[in-house]
Each structure stands twice: as structure tokens, then as C-alpha cells.
């Protein structure tokens, strides 16, 4: 047997084989609306205040121009998703509820005329209680929105003020009442670990939310993110042990109320899990359009990631020039396992080996050493062909990944 000896230069030039995907995963559509009435001090999302200078009166969003840009953006991306069905649609932001009902209806009609949607596809719109009007919610429902996500955060006036929210506790309750009247599927966002918050106050917020019997709850711990007002002027937050007690108490109370804890920060009545976010966690595909939107698309030989131009004015100009994408790159085959795990291990029930192999075009055996190490460190458990995060691993991931994938809701 002759073993060929290659010069070092030629060895360096040899590349690992590229992945080959037999079929793409489910595909979601994400639409980013980048404006808010004002920027919250904890927010590191791509959102832009409508308040100019010292004025408290917000300017109007350039709705018609932005909707036209979204359609043009989508049309430029269609060759990447020809023949694929859209399983879910999510309008995130920013504050998508700043759109008019007529504008949203026009946009949904344009999306449906260019893409094939799964019958009964979940279509979610994020809303801020401070921008709620009963007539607008009815118009959103008539346009085709079938799931609403309300950014409540707290029912405590003091904590809402500390968070820079534009709504008070009365507006929060009114918004939920209106949402429940028009939508049988809605989510409430709550935050805990707020400045000066006690365990009793965190549970009082949860009880106030449960009084409305929401089908879905997202409960996040407040963290200080870079490039935010809180990062520049950090508030005094509860100690880590107290935040851990809040997390334990919230999980216990929701379990007792019949909610399924299916993802690190997500709880749902069985059957009401957010399908759009589940696709993220299972490393599915999503086409992102709009200012700063991110996307992940599986082609036959690579996983492609994209990011649109972030600034609204810059985005509008670049779309007009036929160049909506600011950054685009193929994920290295060696990075696919990590990218898969950072998503899938957020799921309380973990994932099947088959999902890993179909979404990465790699065998689970290819990362056996890393899995064994994670198991020894108590981060994961194996259940035959299923990988499940341990309690310790889930808490570790919760600390590590809070705020990751800002499009989830």
C-alpha cells in the first residue's frame, strides 16, 4: 500500500467536503418594522425612535415607502426560495403595531401573491400596549394576523417607568383585554430581575398575566446589553441568586397552571407553542426582509446567512438601488454543529439525532467527542437517539443566551 505524501502547501489547499443537503428544512418569513415611539433603555434590537430631539410628539413612519421597499426586497430574494412553502410569518421590530390596518392588509396581500403559505399558517404581529387601539386590532385581524404578541414586561407602574415603557399598568390590562377579544392565540412578554424588583413583585406580575388566561407566555430575565442606555448607566439589578429564585418560582407557578415549558423562556398551553420560534430553535430556515433583518437559508450545498441594511433610511436607499442585502456568507461546515446546538439546546425536550443530521448534513457521530464532554460536564443528557439539556445545562444556556436571536417572540 502506497501512502501519498503531499507538500504542506497542497495539504493546506485541501478543503473539507462541503455539506450536501437532501432537502431544505421548513421555511419561515420574518418582516422587520424598525420604528418605536421611543427607544427603551434596555433594548439592543434594531429599533429607531420616532421622537425627535426634546419633542414628545412622535413623527409618522414613512409607511407607503417602507411597504414598497419590503415588497421589492422580497422580490429580489425570490430566486433563493422558489417552490418553497412559508410555514409561518412573524412581524417583529421595533413596533409593528405602528402600521395601519390598511397598510398591513396591503402588505399581506403582496406577500401572498408572491409566496405560497401553508394553509392556516401562524401569522404573528408584535404590539406595544402603548400603541393599542381597538379598531386597529380589529383591522389587523381582518388583514390576516392570527396571533398577537404583546410586550407587557410588567404590571408594576414603578418598574414600567424604570424600563422606559410608554404604557402604564392600566394600558397594559386594556391592551390584553382588546387582544383577547380579537385573537384566540396571543402571547404576553414579561420580564423579571427588574431594577429593585422583589420575588413577590415578580410573581405578582405573573399572576396579573395569568388572570387573562394567555395561551402563551414569554418570561425573560432582564440583562444589560452593550450599546444600550442601561449599559451606559447601569441600574441596580437583583442579585443572581434572587433572579434564580424568581426563575424557579415562575416555572413552578406556570407548571401548576398547566403551562408547558417548552423553551428556555417560553411557556404555552399545550398546542399553543409558537410555531415560528420553534422553527428557529430547530434550526429551520427563515427569510428576513426589512431594515436589519437576518435570514438563514439552506441551499443544496451550503447554509447561507444574510443581513439587510440596518438604518431605515439606508435600507430604503439600498433597496431602491437593488441591493437590500448588506452582508451575506455561507456558514462553514465546521460551524454548523455549534449553530445548531446554540438553538436546539434551548428546547427543554432537546432534539432528535435525525433533526441534527438533516439540518447540518452531518452525522451526530461527527461531534461525539464534544457530546461526551458536555455530558461529563452535566450540560446534556442522552435519551437513546435524543439529546436533552440537563437542568444545569438549561440554566447555563439561559444565562449564556438571553437575548440571542432577537427576532423570537
Automatic annotation (TrEMBL):
Domain of life: Bacteria
Keyword Signal on entry: no
Keyword line: 4Fe-4S, Chaperone, Cytoplasm, Heme, Iron, Iron-sulfur, Metal-binding, S-adenosyl-L-methionine
Main location class: cytoplasm
GO MF annotation terms: 4 iron, 4 sulfur cluster binding; coproporphyrinogen oxidase activity; metal ion binding
GO BP term (any one): porphyrin-containing compound biosynthetic process
Location(s) in or outside the cell: Cytoplasm
InterPro entries: Coproporphyrinogen-III_oxidase, Elp3/MiaA/NifB-like_rSAM, HemN_C, HemW-like, rSAM, rSAM_sf
Gene Ontology CC: cytoplasm
SMART domains given in the database record: Elp3
UniProt keyword Heme present: yes
Radical SAM core domain ranges (all copies): 21-260
Family the UniProt entry places it in: Belongs to the anaerobic coproporphyrinogen-III oxidase family. HemW subfamily.
Function comment: Probably acts as a heme chaperone, transferring heme to an unknown acceptor. Binds one molecule of heme per monomer, possibly covalently. Binds 1 [4Fe-4S] cluster. The cluster is coordinated with 3 cysteines and an exchangeable S-adenosyl-L-methionine.
Name of the protein in its database record: Heme chaperone HemW
Lineage of origin: Bacteria, Pseudomonadati, Pseudomonadota, Betaproteobacteria, Candidatus Accumulibacter
Amino acid at each position: 500500500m502506497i501512502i501519498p505524501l503531499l507538500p504542506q502547501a497542497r495539504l493546506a489547499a485541501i478543503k473539507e467536503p462541503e455539506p450536501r443537503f437532501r432537502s431544505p428544512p421548513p421555511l419561515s418569513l420574518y418582516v422587520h418594522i424598525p420604528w418605536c415611539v421611543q427607544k427603551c433603555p434596555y433594548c439592543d434590537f434594531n429599533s429607531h425612535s420616532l421622537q425627535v430631539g426634546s419633542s414628545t410628539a412622535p413623527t409618522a413612519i414613512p409607511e407607503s415607502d417602507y411597504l414598497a421597499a419590503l415588497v421589492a426586497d422580497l422580490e429580489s430574494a425570490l430566486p433563493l426560495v422558489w417552490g418553497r412553502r412559508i410555514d409561518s410569518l412573524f412581524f417583529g421590530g421595533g413596533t409593528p403595531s405602528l402600521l395601519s390596518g390598511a397598510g398591513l392588509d396591503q402588505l399581506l396581500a403582496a406577500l401572498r401573491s408572491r409566496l405560497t403559505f401553508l394553509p392556516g399558517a401562524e401569522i404573528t404581529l408584535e404590539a406595544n400596549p402603548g400603541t393599542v387601539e381597538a379598531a386597529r386590532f380589529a383591522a389587523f385581524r381582518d388583514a390576516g394576523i392570527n396571533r398577537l404578541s404583546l410586550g407587557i414586561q410588567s404590571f408594576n407602574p414603578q418598574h414600567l417607568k424604570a424600563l422606559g415603557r410608554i404604557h402604564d399598568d392600566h394600558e397594559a390590562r386594556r391592551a390584553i383585554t382588546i387582544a383577547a377579544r380579537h385573537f384566540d392565540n396571543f402571547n404576553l412578554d414579561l420580564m423579571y430581575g427588574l431594577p429593585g424588583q422583589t420575588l413577590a413583585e415578580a410573581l405578582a406580575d405573573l399572576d396579573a398575566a395569568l388572570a387573562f388566561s394567555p395561551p402563551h407566555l414569554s418570561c425573560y430575565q432582564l440583562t444589560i446589553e452593550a450599546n444600550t442606555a442601561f449599559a451606559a448607566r447601569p441600574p441596580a439589578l437583583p442579585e443572581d441568586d434572587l433572579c434564580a429564585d424568581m426563575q424557579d418560582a415562575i416555572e413552578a407557578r406556570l407548571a401548576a397552571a398547566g403551562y408547558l415549558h417548552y423553551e428556555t423562556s417560553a411557556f404555552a398551553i399545550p398546542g399553543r407553542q409558537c410555531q415560528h420560534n420553534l422553527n428557529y430553535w430547530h434550526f429551520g430556515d427563515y427569510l428576513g426582509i426589512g431594515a436589519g433583518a437576518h435570514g438563514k437559508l439552506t441551499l443544496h450545498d451550503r447554509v447561507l446567512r444574510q443581513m439587510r441594511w440596518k438604518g431605515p433610511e439606508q435600507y430604503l436607499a439600498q433597496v431602491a438601488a437593488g441591493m437590500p442585502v448588506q452582508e451575506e456568507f455561507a456558514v462553514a461546515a465546521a460551524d454548523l454543529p455549534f449553530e445548531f446546538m446554540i438553538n436546539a439546546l434551548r428546547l427543554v425536550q432537546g432534539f432528535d439525532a435525525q433533526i441534527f443530521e438533516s439540518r447540518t448534513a452531518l452525522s451526530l457521530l461527527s461531534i461525539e467527542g464534544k457530546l461526551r464532554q458536555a455530558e461529563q460536564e452535566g450540560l446534556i443528557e442522552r435519551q437513546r437517539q435524543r439529546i436533552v439539556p440537563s437542568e444545569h445545562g438549561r440554566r447555563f444556556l439561559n444565562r449564556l443566551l438571553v437575548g440571542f436571536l432577537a427576532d423570537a417572540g
